[in-house]
Each structure stands twice: as structure tokens, then as C-alpha cells.
Design goal:
elongated; mainly alpha; Arc Repressor Mutant, subunit A
């Protein structure tokens, strides 16, 4: 599933991933930016129309919950970014990530371990 989120939609999805199912007022309260109730409701309805959110009725309102996993959204966004800005090359993306960041020795160690693990996976016979 290709998951495409605007910045505002991503903010709302982050609230649902972090806090679980919420009513509109709760989502609104967890957002960094102050948005009108109706704006948050519209965004939740848009996310539901896209298939990323579902709701259950609760009294006169609705409680919204994420239907897509955060990891799936990350994977989709990274794939899109890699295709659009890095000619589909994970190597070019990785080069930019590493060269443009001030990484700690521990972060570099963990990255090396991940790369070594990935290299080992690629060498195993199918």
C-alpha cells in the first residue's frame, strides 16, 4: 500500500500512533500547532477516506484510530523520497544522510552493524 501523507496529516497520524484511539478534541490537544476543531475533524475524515484511519461511534462523536502501522508509512515515505530525489538509489540517500549529519561514535557503530547484517543476509544462498 502506497501511503501518502501531507505534513498536517502526518502530525495527526503521529498523535494516533503515539496515543492510540482518540476523539477529535484529544487529537487537537496533542498537536503542537493550534488548529480549529473543524480543521482537525476534516483532516481525520480525509485520512479515513484514504483508508489510513477508522472510527468507532462514541456517544455523539467518533473515536479515531490508525489503520496503518507507522512502520508502513515510514517505508512508503522513504521509498517515495528515494525515488523522487535520489534517482531510486538507496546508496545516494545513505551517502547524504551520513555526510550531512553529525553522527556520534555509537550511531556509526550501530549503522555499521546494520550494514554488516544486511551484507550477511545478501550472501546467504536462497
Amino acid at each position: 500500500m502506497d501511503i501518502s501523507l501531507t505534513n498536517r496529516e502526518a502530525d495527526i497520524m503521529q498523535v494516533l500512533w503515539d496515543h492510540g484511539p482518540c476523539i477529535v478534541a484529544e487529537v487537537r490537544g496533542h498537536l503542537r500547532d493550534e488548529l480549529a476543531y473543524t480543521t482537525v475533524l476534516t483532516l481525520l475524515r480525509t485520512l479515513e477516506a484514504k483508508g489510513y484511519v477508522r472510527h468507532t461511534e462514541e456517544g455523539r462523536g467518533h473515536r479515531y484510530a490508525a489503520k496503518v502501522k507507522q512502520q508502513a508509512a515510514r517505508k512508503s515515505a522513504l521509498k517515495h523520497l528515494t525515488e523522487k530525489l535520489f534517482q531510486g538509489s538507496a546508496e545516494i540517500l545513505f551517502t547524504h544522510l551520513v555526510s550531512d549529519q553529525k553522527l556520534t561514535a555509537d550511531q556509526i557503530r550501530r549503522m555499521r552493524a546494520l550494514l554488516a547484517e544486511k551484507a550477511d543476509d545478501g550472501e546467504k544462498p536462497q
